[in-house]
Amino acid sequence: MDNEPQFEKKLIVTPDQLWNSLGMIQQAVMSILLLFVYVLISIIIARSVSIHPGLENWMQNLQGLFRPDSLIMDLVWGTIAGLSLAIILSVFDLLIAVIGRKNIRTWLHRTDYMLPETPKQKRWALSISLSGSVVEEIMFRGFIYMAIIPLWSHWIWAALLLSAVFSLLHAGVQGFWSTLWIFLISVSLCYFVSQGGSIYFAAMAHVVINITNLFILPKFFKKHDE
């Protein structure tokens, strides 16, 4: 009963492979690429006004995600949303273990191989979680989501497509159930953005979810194991 099914197998990596300077370099490269795309499209729009209405609408929608007027409240609500999502999905994860008659302790610790162990790894993990959450939200909920949402009659179709891609990018090291939770989180963040949420809201929720899953919940589970 405690053995993982075939579809739950994943590539096992060590914390040292995940939490190091390479992660920050990757975030920096992605940030540069996003900036390059933004500047390039801005130039195209400026040099050919009204010729590319699709690009203009994309730029307008993207810029709307960065409105500063509600920054503080967006960060506050993003924190609440992120913590709520992390707790709710942890409860769902526990229910899966109970329904599947799995060893609960083993189940809850099945992804501990990813957790940072040394102080150095924890510093890198915190840095990558903070920067990665922001970069990923700008890329997925900003650049990509704002580009594909006009192609569909309802936001949910664009959200499902984007979330499938987003979650599958994590599938190699996360396993089936964790990938499913990532998918649901992505759909939720797409919903918030579709309902007028800013990129600050989505990024803050993403940050809180990552930090909760990396530092808070593992410590909580370990404390209750003793």
Biggest pleated-sheet summary = none
Please tally the β strands and state the result.
0
**SSE class:** mainly alpha
Average pLDDT level:
91
Number of helices: 10
Helix content: over 70%
N-to-C series of helices and strands: HHHHHHHHHH
| Percent of sequence in beta strands | under 5%
The tally of structural domains comes to 1
Unreliable spans are: 1-7
- Alpha-carbon Rg, integer: 19 Å
Shape: globular
Euclidean distance between termini CA atoms? 23 Å
Write the layout of secondary structure elements.
Layout: H1 15-18, H2 21-47, H3 53-64, H4 71-99, H5 104-108, H6 119-148, H7 155-168, H8 171-174, H9 176-194, H10 199-225
